[in-house]
Fold this protein.
Amino acid sequence: MSHSFISYSVLRRWLWRWHRRAGLIAAVVLSLVTVTGVFLNHTAELSLGKKYVGQAWLLGFYGIPEPKLVSFNLGETTVTGDDKGQLYWGTEPLEKCRGGLVGAAVYEAGFIASCAAELFFFDSSGRLVEKVSAVYGLPTPITQLGQCDERLCIRTPKRLFELDLEVLSFKPLVGVKAVWSKPVPLAERISQAIYADSRRQGLSWERVLLDLHSGRLFGSPGVWVVDLAAILLFFLSVSGFVLWYQHMRAKRTRRNTTDNEFQ
């Protein structure tokens, strides 16, 4: 009887001690998981998949590098392309192109941006007027865009072609002098704005919250911490049930003892 009482007393103290400790440890992680879970449960309403991270330290934490940029001068502004195919007019995002930007030139009241596999025609406000690809007979891959005897022309690895934009024809040229569109350095203000826009497009807040929710934001150790919190939660459930059961059993025993004394 004494041995049973001692075992019960020791077990109860041990369970209480570790029940409290496990609760404190798990509470921190479970609070984080709960908060992120609530946000993730409303991803569509909050448009988290379409909202992108702009914080440089967080982008750096994910290892997202600054993009490689190539820029061409258009008088008072520039057309720039990053290594993911995104085009910019000054700092304003335009279209995405296939093959990367290879040249740009003023055309009538707007301008032309040439990528390796596509030509884009924009008006003076940067609005897309037309896009031409190999489907329309465009020779590809384009390596340069420029002027050949005051006519717009493009170069491919094999030859030169004159651009007739009225009827969208591409006539081969021979023996003409070409002045090609040349890359120019970007102003620091413009390049930094493009860096920020280009980098954040690769990281949405939905992904950050998912990684934080699962612990993957901190690599393998973070995943193990979340797993440990789940194990501690299971321990809390078991220890809580045992403590409750022991309490009810002791209460029942005391009641029976009291009843026997009055009989």
